[in-house]
Amino acid sequence: MKYRIGVLAISLWAGLLFPLSAALQAAERDGTIKARAVFIGDIMTHGQQLEAARIGQSWDFKPQFHRVKPLFRESLTVGNLETVFAGEQKKFAGYPLFNTPDELASALVDMGLGIAMLANNHILDQGLEAALRTTKVLDAAGLLWTGLASQFTRDEPLVVLYGGLKWAFVNYSYGSNIQRSPAKSEDLELNVISDEAIKASLKRAADYEPDITVAFFHWGAEYQFSPLKSQKHAASLCLENGADLVIGAHPHVLQPIEIRTTEKGPAVVAYSLGNFVSNQRTKPRERSVALAVDVEKKPGERAAVSRVAVAPVWVSARREDDRRKIEVMYSGEGETFDHSGLSEAEL
Question: In 10 A of CB 154, how many CB atoms?
Fold first, then answer.
């Protein structure tokens, strides 16, 4: 278990991120606590992204994210890390067996990512030892993570203190492309979706009395715009067992975002947020959204979702000065966001 300090409608938030500081100051005066979590989709590194990040014998991924950094200010940002850090002794590669230089971790921290979800079908691409090394790289970079567990920590949530609230996260995948079994009981293994696992992990999360409980899944059918029955079933089961937010990844395209009403109050189900960054170059797969969820806790009351918003993002892939350039862009307008260098067609 990791423990770290640290009118409802879906709308575009754009510049609305930035008055949050004033809102927090006002909240302190009347005793209301306000905090924001932002969720992004699949963080992938295909071969073309490796090429764009390479500078001689070193790597720099920060330029791929610098244009969207304003979206993640003053928020607890969570994303699905769909690659591994197996080290340079193994060949760096994109699909189908991902292995990314460690420098990606520091670039994600620089962008504003706080928590990496590891339960996905690529976490065992380079074997169990590479998955274990990935967790150590994330630890060194200051990134929290969940989705892998030993037999001793199975069903334990990731519990985080952020913005004056306690957040609990559980993370599961339908499985992995390469099956690996832990050699020892203390070795980490993949959290796999089942009704029993969902109930057990959410029950354990409730023991920590969190303000907000988040279930993050790797599920569904790739490139399909509608959720499967299995996704709907798992989402409903989560809400019945105390989850406030259910977030999905894996289809690589956007799927519906729903506002539900539960006994606890408003709940959000986002079946798939698509690709945050990748080199999948079709319009559905190169477009995504960042999902912002604002939470308020008034004195003497339970914390509740107060606002849900999305910011559309898009991956630009072009050549500049005879060099490949890949950047995640905010797909709207605003003086904070820099769209310089894009062609008329891209704009």
Answer: 13
For domain 2-330, say whether CATH 3.60.21 is its number.
yes
* Mean pLDDT, range 158-178, rounded to an integer: 96
Q: What whole-number distance in Å separates Cα of residue 59 and Cα of residue 241?
A: 43
Evaluated on CA atoms 8, 9, 10, 12, the torsion sign reads: negative
pTM greater than 0.85? yes
Determine the length of the chain: 347
Our CA angle for 341, 342, 343, nearest 5°, is: 120
**How does pLDDT run across 85-140, given as a tens digit for each residue?**
999 999 999 999 999 999 999 999 999 999 999 999 999 999 999 999 999 999 99
Nearest to 339 by CA among 280, 331, 110, 291: 331
CA 56 from centre of chain: 30
Enter the DSSP assignment of 273.
B
Q: Which residues pair with 327 in a beta bridge?
A: 316
Rounded-to-10 torsion of CA 270, 336, 277, 189 = -60
Which tokens go with 18? 């930035």
Which pLDDT score, from 0 to 100, does residue 22 have? 44
Residue from 308, 309, 213, 303 nearest 32 by CA: 303
| % of the chain with per-residue pLDDT over 90 | 78
Q: Which of 295, 343, 290, 307 is nearest to 69 (CA)?
A: 290
